[in-house]
């Protein structure tokens, strides 16, 4: 469980739950089952790598109702700052907040914002999950099934 906020800065939590199959992870952005997703090891690794270099990615995930979706992680530009995409090549590394987002049909979706202190917790959580999967000797697999299975 990692504390975060919405882009409007309301507090929220995102839950990361290693599933009983030991090969995949259920993610509940904003701690809401409406947005529950199942991720495989490759997606978890990509999210962790993206956090480490503060870049952007979209990983495949499985939603129980809407099927295959993309879970995106990217730098978030605060209203008073220049866009992260407009930073000069010689600028220091981006250290601002990161946004985890999911879009669902009908314009429904969620966005979760991880500011500096929450990014540390998110990084630690993903590293712990990677270690658990590695201890179990598991490799990347394809996303199949429902988040609760």
In brief:
The chain is built from two helices and eight strands. The protein has helices spanning about 40-55, 115-135, and strands at about 1-5, 10-20, 25-30, 35-40, 55-65, 65-75, 100-105, 110-115. The strands form two sheets. It has a four-stranded antiparallel beta sheet. Strands 5-6-7-8 form a four-stranded antiparallel beta sheet.
Mind explaining what this structure looks like?
The chain has helices spanning 41-53, 116-135, and strands spanning 2-5, 11-18, 24-28, 37-40, 57-63, 67-75, 98-104, 108-114. It is α+β, with helices and mostly antiparallel strands and 149 residues long. It has a four-stranded antiparallel β-sheet. Strands 5-6-7-8 form a four-stranded antiparallel β-sheet. The longest helix is centred in the last third of the chain and has 20 residues, at 116-135. The protein is globular and about 45 Å long. Residues 138-149 have low confidence and may be disordered.
């Amino acid at each position: 469980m990692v504390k975060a906020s919405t882009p409007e800065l309301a507090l929220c939590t995102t839950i990361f739950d290693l599933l009983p199959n030991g090969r995949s992870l259920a993610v509940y952005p904003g701690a809401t089952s409406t947005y529950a997703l199942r991720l495989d090891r490759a997606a978890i690794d990509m999210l962790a790598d993206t956090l480490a270099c503060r870049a952007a990615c979209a990983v495949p995930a499985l939603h129980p109702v809407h099927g295959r979706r993309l879970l995106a992680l990217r730098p978030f530009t605060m209203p008073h700052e220049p866009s992260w995409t407009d930073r000069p090549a010689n600028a220091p590394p981006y250290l601002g907040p990161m946004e985890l987002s999911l879009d669902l049909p009908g314009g429904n979706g969620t966005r979760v914002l991880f500011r500096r202190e929450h990014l540390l917790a998110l990084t630690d959580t993903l590293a712990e999950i990677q270690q658990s999967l590695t201890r179990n000797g598991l490799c990347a697999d394809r996303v199949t099934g429902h988040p609760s299975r």
